[in-house]
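Run: sequence + 2-phosphoglycolic acid -> complex structure.
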Amino acid sequence: MRKKIIAGNWKMFKTVQEATQLVVGLKRELTDYVAVDIVVCPTFVNLESVSDLLVGHNIKLGAQNLFWEDEGAFTGEVSGPMLKAVGVEYVIIGHSERRQFFHETNETVNKRLKAALKHGLKPIVCVGENLSERESGRTFDVVKNHVTGSLAGLTKEDMAEVVLAYEPVWAIGTGKTASSAQAQEVHRFIRGLLAGMFGQDTADAVRIQYGGSVKPENTAELTSQPDIDGALVGGASLKVDSFTAIVKNAR
Ligand code: PGA
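>> structure
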């Protein structure tokens, strides 16, 4: 039985004061709530303050990216050891906004993923088609390309640490959610790809989140699909009430 995992991607939102306020609120609502795994992913500059508030807590800390080298002359980047040192446990890799605005490719996603695993961070690897790809009937080709390219060279053991997130780009921040049937169809396809790459046992164990306009009202329907194991939440993770409701509605 795969445990559901709900992660909040705070993107480039929240000053340190706002981030700590949000975490204080989430702790008030979700302390000892262990029915699902809960992760929050603030910006790099807010990781340490949020981390201090989450010491020993069931809400876990994630980052939104990492660089593949441990240290060096890479202005503006942050490494795996640096994330580990402030108590980060999860890291989002290959989010569509990074692919779209920061020229991430399967190759760079794969390098970041391997760096995360090397440093004992649990990667949340994002895949998904954009609107023109869906409309031209290329959803499965694009998702296959993202999954096989991003996970190239990983072992079954590595996959025990990895969470995948299927995020149709056309559903991100648009208010347009994929229907639960549309999402389930792609999730099942991804699990089939994983079975081909790593064997059925591994495919059955990997958690695949859905992301794209997840809100309290659609969480139960989405997460009750057989291959949807949680959600990666953007906009609705920025408020205590909506994120708490999403966590509690996950089935
Ligand atoms: P959204 O973002 O929930 O605001 O659509 C999801 C994401 O980008 O992870």
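>> summary
The domain at 5-249 is CATH 3.20.20.70 (TIM Barrel). The radius of gyration is 17 Å.
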